[in-house]
């Protein structure tokens, strides 16, 4: 597999699981070439990220124009926020979406609310992702998780 294919695979895995490991995120951010140069004892170990950080990562690489991706993200969002505080904006978004869609029986309005909220909150998620990226990446790295929607390999 090419480096691009490995990174694309890692991005898809991040979207597919509820709690992606730091190792998977690091693979997505640094690429396989960088990681294969690290000694085994320096390879990052997994830590559990809070829901809102995982949400930020997934939102930053989500292409909302692809209905299947959008629906998969919403399904993940609804299933992963159970029991979390409504004070967390990402949790509130999920519960509001579910309420409007199911309780009010208005999926179209729920989709419109989601799209508007998503656009308004995206810059915050991008900032969170940049913060995580800063913690995960060395200064020598030029990779970026942000704006991977075009699925290009430029910069890797």
Topology:
Layout: H1 3-16, H2 22-36, H3 51-61, H4 67-80, H5 89-103, H6 107-136
| Head-to-tail CA distance between termini | 14 Å
Q: Which consecutive residue ranges, at least 5 long each, have pLDDT under 50?
A: 137-156
Helix content: 55-70%
Number of E-state strands: 0
Gyration radius (Cα, Å) is 16 Å
Quaternary structure: single chain
Strand residue percentage: under 5%
What is the domain total for the residues? 2
Report the sheet with the most strands, covering strand number, pairing sense and barrel closure: none
Category from helices, strands and their pairing: mainly alpha
What coarse outline follows from CA principal-axis ratios? elongated
Mean pLDDT: 80
Number of helices: 6
Order of helices and strands: HHHHHH
Account of the 3D structure:
- By secondary structure, the chain is mostly helical.
- Helix content is 63%, strand content 0%.
- It has helices spanning 3-16, 22-36, 51-61, 67-80, 89-103, 107-136.
- The chain is elongated and about 55 Å long.
- Residues 137-156 have low confidence and may be disordered.
